[in-house]
Amino acid sequence: MKLDLQLYRGYANDEELVVFGHLFKSWAPDKFQTDRKGFKHAFSVLHMFRISPLKNVEVRLRFKDIDVTTRTMDDGFFRFNVPYENNLESGWHAYEITCKPKEVDYGIIEKAEFLKPFESKLSIISDIDDTFLISHSGNIFKKLYVMLA
Predict the structure, then answer these.
(1) Fewest CB atoms less than 10 Å from the CB: which of 3, 59, 64, 72?
(2) Residue 82 contacts residue 68 (beta carbons within 8 Å)
(3) What is the pLDDT of residues 22-66, one digit of tens each?
């Protein structure tokens, strides 16, 4: 069994630090090579449906003087909401997530970043990707057709 720890960029403010991610068996969705041609592309797309999240696995966050653990949910998702009252300068900060499921003899370590925004009176949120997405989630055959075409 292979592991993939998919971390997302977190954020912080003057009161707490928030980071989250997913733990998968096999490969996470961004590891697939969907730019292949023909049957290799079809196989890669079909393989995406075989991803299995790992549930109830202990996950550890390390950042500066913080060392806390949580467990993944049934869908493999985990989230850390950690109170943080130390002085933290604005900008990007690196953190580390580790885990070692009991079913395997090895663990995984991933590093990512979170942002503590600079103080400002103006914020811009860009969410254009949802505007053009057609999921067809209600019909699996239509979804496969769109993904394979």
Answers:
(1) 64
(2) yes
(3) 998 866 555 566 676 777 777 777 777 777 888 899 999 999 999
* DSSP label at residue 55: P
Report the CATH number of the 3-121 domain: 2.60.40.10
Angle in degrees, 0-180, between the axes of helices 38-48 and 140-148, rounded to the nearest 10: 140
Pairing label, strands 91-99, 58-63: antiparallel
Kind plus residue range of the DSSP H or E element containing 133: none
List CB contacts of 82: < 8 A, sequence separation 6 or more: 16, 17, 18, 61, 66, 68
Going along the chain, which residue ranges are E strands? Answer: 3-12, 16-25, 52-53, 58-63, 66-71, 77-83, 91-99, 108-116
Sign of CA dihedral 22, 25, 31, 36: negative
Q: Which of 4-13, 23-32, 109-118 has the lowest mean pLDDT?
A: 23-32
Question: How many CA atoms within 13 Å lie on the side-chain side of 35?
Answer: 2
What type of residue sits at position 123? Answer: S
Per-domain boundaries in the chain: 3-121
pLDDT above 80 (res 93): yes
pTM tops 0.90: no
Half-sphere exposure of 124 (CA within 13 A, CB side): 2
